[in-house]
What does this fold into?
Amino acid sequence: MNTPAEPHAHTFATPPAHPSAELPAHTPAKSSAHTPAAPAGKTAPPLLTVRDLRVVIGGRHILHGVDLDVAASGTTALLGRNGAGKTTTVRGILGLVPRTGSVRLDGEETVRLATHALVRRGVGYAPEDRGVFAALTVAENLRLAERPGAGEPAYDLVHELFPELKQRARQAAGTLSGGQQQMVAIARTLLNGNRIVIADEPTKGLAPKVVTEVTRVLERAAEAVPVLLVEQNLAVVRRLARHCAVLADGRTAHHGPAAELLADPDATRRLLGVGRGGHGTGTRAERGHTGTTAPEHTAAHPAARTAEADA
Amino acid sequence: MSTVVLLTLTGLGLGALYFLVASGLSLIFGLMDVLNFAHGALMSAGAYGTWWAASGHLPGAGSGGFGFVLAVVFGTAVGTLAAVLLELAVIRPLYTRPREQILATVGVGLAVPALLSAIWGADARPFLGPEALAGTFGLLGAEVPLNGLVLIAAAVVVLVALKLFLGRTRHGLVVRAGVEDRAMVTALGIDVRKAFTLVFAIGGAAAALGGAIGGLYFGSVDPEQGTSLLIFAFVVVVMGGMGSLTGAALASVAVGLVQQFANYYTSAGLGDLAVVVLLAALLLVRPRGLTGRLA
It folds into this structure.
């Protein structure tokens, strides 16, 4: 789909009922209010287009129709309070949970593909829990991500970004710190020439120093490959994301330029449950975390304190 | 002393037989969460395949020398093929329905012995092997049957081969990762279903080999042989820790030895009870089995 770049952020009063893969039929001609951000500029269509993504697990409706565009370059952030459906959206895109709707990767409909088949089309995935195989060594974890017949794995890049992983190649991944495990998870997404990287809360539970390191790596990665970033740390979002979509109750509630959203205290409070967006790039006082019950200062929230968990 | 030596070696032989069945069972459960109640049937397929071939039905095969080796290879191939068919035709369509999957494997586990009975009768058939393996050899005053040693040797070879496969090959790496987190393996772009089929084939081959050489150990084959051993194989899997080969090997040895010694020093039949007591005691101390994996 070739959605024009959206000049302003939009908040959905109610999400579109059945958006099509193209522009929703009821979208006003002069406004793209119900069209997810097409952030790559007027000429670049989104790399990943999600329409009306619905997930039902155990009879419970988790996603009620998520729309999302991931730009063909840079980082697109997927935001929302805890339980909004961010991780389920990612898992639905990948086919890790049963889903309906439309998921187009570079124009190709993938919703009927098995997860492995979709991933082989060039999707790197770093899951929320890192998905590291604890009993395997670091080298084995990376070797699993190699795709035979898909070109030489980019170990040079991975070792340049994460020199520690080379030193710890023979160490069982289960004995690594949380930060090191996250490095393994991200390294696996960069090993192949993926067309998109999906990172689900890559800074969750990490110490500030490691958050900075992971952010730096994702910034570097986004120069080469589009990134869909699920993130609660708004300082990270501010630094990395050009565009964002916000989920609420399993629906797309907002999309638009990330900076615009974060600069709007009312919108961040309403959509993300944080008192203010913050204006820095990572100091504790400025590190906004979503998913709270609207505390006035996010650093006081326990989510911010959990950042000390791992070194 | 000679009694202890004899009991130890026959116990190890029995343990080797359990391991051959349990190794595949453990990998299948560890990777696929499938309780394969048809695994005993795969062993029976191997035993009958070998017996059929060694009885002169397969050109070149026979009960002695290279002919017997060929018969064992044939029996193992029959069990492997049966395992692959079982996975593709019965297990795969029921991946998302675990209860039905269990019922289906139970059904196959009952149907195969019935089929074998219908074709070759319910009575045990004498299993002829090489004469060289029918004798005994002296060790520390005990006359130890050679066929038990063949079983032990086969189990060691299978253990080493599986370890090499799991540790040195990409397919083995996929299986080890899949035992830990199947969904994540898929999310790395790997078709885990191929690993499922492969593990079923490997498990079927090991069980069928156990059936083939087990025929030597018991001196006969009968339709219920595999099924009767399956319960002990499950005990071994639980004791060893789901998905752990080393655990299965250790538990096999323990079960075989306890069974033999208890049968001899108490009264015949109490060996089975002793195994159950051993299982209960182990799970009280180590609920996740010998290797700490979730049972």
Residues 2-285 of chain B form a domain with the ABC transporter involved in vitamin B12 uptake, BtuC fold (CATH 1.10.3470). Chain B touches chain A at residues 170, 173-174, 176-177, 180-181, 183-192 (CB under 8 Å). The mean pLDDT of chain B is 89. The radius of gyration of chain B is 19 Å.
